[in-house]
């Protein structure tokens, strides 16, 4: 139920993931990152999403520590980078990430991109970490349906979540429907399309009606579509604004107007065609 910032979606392994978390992609300045994490936790966020390639796991760990929050109340996600994929290298990469975070376990560990010929071995490593209790849930990021089908054809564990580029210009309806059928949660990175859709007249009109910003309307649209979101900001006021989503509701007509903005337009790389 979408009641407040602590509302969680139950994953298929029974673990709850907060519907709203803080994303820290492109946060390069360590003190700024520490402050953003602390601001988010003070605001009531329980979830922080980082990745090895972001280069800020230490700062996230420090922010968590300085916040004074109880680790068991928080939900921390990181991801294995492409150059570390493979069985042994993934286990090493996880250990490195855990040390940088200065934590005993992770709540969620993801394969960052479906590196051809490697993601199945990477998944075997994640299954081992999961069985050993070092990570509470395992999932993937940027997987198309065919990647998921291929992975699940030879895996013991099904991913609990698929973190994908998703916003009004790229609504990912088919992939979301497939994930729903398979009981795989969907999480949106770049949920407001890096701000590129905020001037859409339909969004501004809906925002005005509710006394909200276009960004808040988009984030609420995700939540009502049962999508987990990780909006990113280093500014305390924006972090608060991104969390102020639980005192209004979009009508089905408004939801449809936002759905109509879809153009299958990516602002990030296509998972079938990335070269990093």
Automatic annotation (TrEMBL):
InterPro entries: AKR (IPR020471), AKR5G (IPR044500), Aldo/ket_reductase_CS (IPR018170), NAD(P)_OxRdtase_dom_sf (IPR036812), NADP_OxRdtase_dom (IPR023210)
PROSITE patterns for this protein: ALDOKETO_REDUCTASE_2 (PS00062), ALDOKETO_REDUCTASE_3 (PS00063)
Keywords from the named record: NADP, Oxidoreductase
GO-annotated molecular function: oxidoreductase activity, acting on the CH-OH group of donors, NAD or NADP as acceptor
Coiled-coil segments on the chain, per record: none
Annotated binding of substrate, by residue: 112
Domain NADP-dependent oxidoreductase: 25-262
Record carries keyword Oxidoreductase: yes
Oxidoreductase found in the keyword field: yes
Pfam families according to UniProt: Aldo_ket_red (PF00248)
Residues of the active site: 54 (proton donor)
Positions bearing the site annotation: Lowers pKa of active site Tyr: 79
Family according to the record: Belongs to the aldo/keto reductase family.
Protein's name in the database: Aldo/keto reductase
Originating species: [Bacillus] enclensis
